[in-house]
Amino acid sequence: MLTVDYDLLDLRPGMTVLDLGCGEGRHAFEAYRRGARVVAVDRGVSEVGTTKRWLGAIAEAGEAPAGAAYEVVRGDLLALPFPDESVDRVIASEVLEHIPDDGTAMAEIARVLRPGGTVAVTVPRYGPERVCWALSDAYHANEGGHIRIYRGDVLRARLAAAGLVPGEQHHAHALHAPFWWLKCAVGVDRDPAAVRAYHRLLVWDLTERPWLTRTAERLLDPVIGKSLVVYAEKPAGAATAGETELERTAV
């Protein structure tokens, strides 16, 4: 289930891409299949292990083109272990809402991007997320949970403050918003029949991609899309810190 539009990200083969807060690797997998040199980063040991295993499986199945490469590392988004201006694209999907010092995280993204590079940032959308918070404290008030809800204009302003130029934006995953409202209403740790039925619908949509649900989500995304996606560019004329290169080899 991808949140980022890779055409808007303008991801091309041979580019170096950081997937920050990669989780279990969904965006890293697609970038690798498109021929990128992917570096997936997460703080979690299990997340790093899972992502590495699946990227290895993609490589063994021959699903990535020649020239594609990957590495999976543990890292802190507040102090990325990469040189200045060393990557072409950054993906930060559903991670900034977890970080108290999001300004430093955005500054780190700007630091590692090459001039002309692009970042795709995705966060929970204000309206659907506010409903979840109103229905359930357990949804967000836990260790590692969501600590803020971004308004779109605030997210864009913070990216601009980090030296990036926000551009296109869109919403995604409208069908997931009612699912989480239902989960929050009945209890996030409960699994009644209605929740299981809705989950089966989402799995069917994910695996089969039927016309009915794809059309419904496309129409509903501008209204209740659960995620906000903003694309921002590092200006080509930005001051550089020297010519640096992140060289990664296939694992």
From TrEMBL:
The keyword Transferase applies. Pfam families: Methyltransf_11. GO terms for molecular function: S-adenosylmethionine-dependent methyltransferase activity. Transmembrane segments: none annotated. The keyword Repeat does not apply. Coiled coil: none annotated. One of its GO terms (biological process) is methylation. Residues 18-120 form the Methyltransferase type domain. Keywords: Methyltransferase, Transferase. CDD domains: AdoMet_MTases. It comes from the Bacteria. This is Methyltransferase type 11. It comes from Geodermatophilus obscurus (strain ATCC 25078 / DSM 43160 / JCM 3152 / CCUG 61914 / KCC A-0152 / KCTC 9177 / NBRC 13315 / NRRL B-3577 / G-20).
